[in-house]
Amino acid sequence: MHRVLLVDDEVYARKGLRKLIRWEACGFEVAGEANDGDEACTRIEELQPDVVITDIRMPETDGLELIRRTVERDEQVLTMRKQPYFIIVSGYNDFAYAQQAVRYGVQDYILKPIDEIELEGTLRKLAEELNRHKHAEQTRREQEYVRLIDQFIYGESELGTLEQWTELTGTCAGDALAYLLFENNTPHFRVSDNAQEEEPGARNGENFGRIVQSVLGMMYANRSYLHVKEHGERIGVLLTAEHLHPYSMNLHEVARQMQSCFAEMGHDSVSIYIGKVCYEPLLIGHAYQTALKAISYKFISEKSGIVLYDDMQHEPVQWVHTDHEKEQELLTLMEEQRVEALENAVGEWFNGMRTANYAPVAVTSAIHQLISAVLSILKSAEANVKEIPSFKLILAWQADRGTLAEAKRLLTVFMLDSARKLAEQRQYNHRGAMTKIKHYIEANYSSNISLRSIASEFYMNPVYLGQRFRKVYGVYFNDFLLQLRMEEAKKLLRQTDMRVYEIAERVGFGSSDYFATQFEKKESCSPTEYRNRILDEG
Q1: pTM above the 0.85 mark?
Q2: Which residues pair with 256 in a beta bridge?
Q3: Cβ neighbours of residue 222 under 8 Å, at least 6 residues apart?
Q4: Of 16, 98, 178, 219, which has the maximum CB count within 10 A?
Q5: β pairing state of 51-55 and 2-7
Q6: Residue 223 confidence (pLDDT) above 70
Q7: pLDDT, tens digit, for every residue of 83-119?
Q8: DSSP 525
Q9: Across 283-333, where does the E strand assignment appear?
Q10: What's the confidence (pLDDT) of residue 74?
Q11: Structural contact between residues 276 and 176, judged by C-beta atoms closer than 8 angstroms
Q12: Residues linked to residue 85 through DSSP beta bridges, in sequence order
């Protein structure tokens, strides 16, 4: 609502005007009254009204003198507020008064008795103009505020910056200033077994900056200068003594209240980092830098989600991942398909990083090193990593916008997915290897080959090869080789006049007697009898 001051030496005229006009419907509220021009000057200073409705003829100081003083004062005195609009109400239809009023920029000149429709029309037009002016002024002041904040943060403040800041914000020397960074750690995806589902927050594409602005609005209704600033995916805001006093300057209490507001809006995984409190605008840059440093202690304070640099600055932080032995254990368990042990080991790995106070950058590095090692194993097995459901999720995870609990959940699923994929690929590879071995036997059966020689050729254990061959083809290796040789021998007996010992040598038998013995077992007749029978039938 815009504010109105009523000025008239007749109290009944003022009271009547209060009742006559539908002030709220016109966008106004009556902020106060004055009995004459002198009192009105004082009230204008106190109330800073947007509009003054004044009578012309009053004792001591009349309406025109009041307007003149106000206009000249605002021309001479630097003020943060614009001078009010004036509407003159008079029973004197005097053109000279109207001319003088126009020279002073009076908005309207209304004769008594007042026509409420006319005055309400004037007020509505004034409300629209005031809205435009106030919006433009608010935008200008916000832009100025952001410009000054940037200069302080990035060390670009000039000689006049401090004066501009004091004039704009009304802060005093020695007032507390605290810079806060907000980080949204709400998971964008929910991972379960081999499935992935998009979370509602991610699907709606909510703007985190607007959410922060809403929370600030809930906590600091009608308080000025709480403009959020984007720092990558984080949102920053500067709190002044005005914002801290309602909470007895207790930053923990301020942050807890903020988290309660976030939770009310359905965002219960927001971290708040608070830099070192400063008492000089020129140190706002230091307050911001220490808020950034507070992020290093994120996982130490993950349970509360609140990190004050002043509380944590002396805590040791691990910046480099060094537990390569544990990483190798995880890889071994994955390759060996020891699922339960793998899940436990991932949990222990994360507990170790939390206990050692790993900084977010170190956690991200450790996870990505492990992922890289897993992918290397899968690649060597010729597995298609893009077919792993959780691959993209864990690859995109970053510690600076997630929690250790979320990372543990994602990595566990990824490791189990990778273990399954590796097992599937090994099965596929073994089936492919068996096919190659079968083709090799079919091409070389006439040579002096054996299970041991083939196993050596394909870099396999002969016992394992024999077991795999029987499992894949349902026949022992020696029986398969003998069957190939016998079929070829029968073919040569039918189609050629080669001697039996020549055929035996051709199909891979080192002894014709051994060939004859095996042939007779298989066909219940000797090689010669088999040939003669074929000839007789022909």
Answers
A1: no
A2: none
A3: none
A4: 178
A5: parallel
A6: no
A7: 899 988 877 666 666 667 777 778 788 888 888 999 9
A8: S
A9: 306-308
A10: 61
A11: no
A12: 51
Could you say which DSSP state residue 205 is in?
Answer: T
Residue 307 structure tokens: 């990190």
pLDDT on residue 349: 92
Structure tokens at 340: 């339960």
Q: Which residues pair with 235 in a beta bridge?
A: 182, 230
Rounded average pLDDT over 11-19: 91
Would you state the pLDDT for residue 80?
Answer: 45
284 and 238 in contact (C-beta within 8 Å)? yes
Distance CA 255, CA 239 (A): 11
As given in the structure block, the two tokens for residue 266 are: 């359905």
Q: Are 433 and 458 in contact, with CB atoms under 8 Å apart?
A: yes
Spatial distance between the Cα atoms of 55 and 64, rounded to a whole number of angstroms:
9
For residues 397-415, average pLDDT: 85
| CA atoms within a 13 Å half-sphere pointing along the CA-CB vector of 535 | 10
Distance CA 6, CA 23 (A): 12
Summarised one tens digit per residue, pLDDT across range 302-339 is 788 999 999 998 888 888 877 788 899 999 999 988 99
Q: Which residues contact 223 (CB under 8 A, 6 or more apart)?
A: 242, 243
Q: DSSP letters along 416-464, please? A: HHHHHHHHHHHHHHHHHHHHHHHHHHHHHTTSS--HHHHHHHTT--HHH
Q: In terms of Cα–Cα distance, which of 75, 72, 4 is closest to 34? A: 4
Given a contact cutoff of 8 angstroms between Cβ atoms, the answer to whether 31 and 77 are in contact is: no
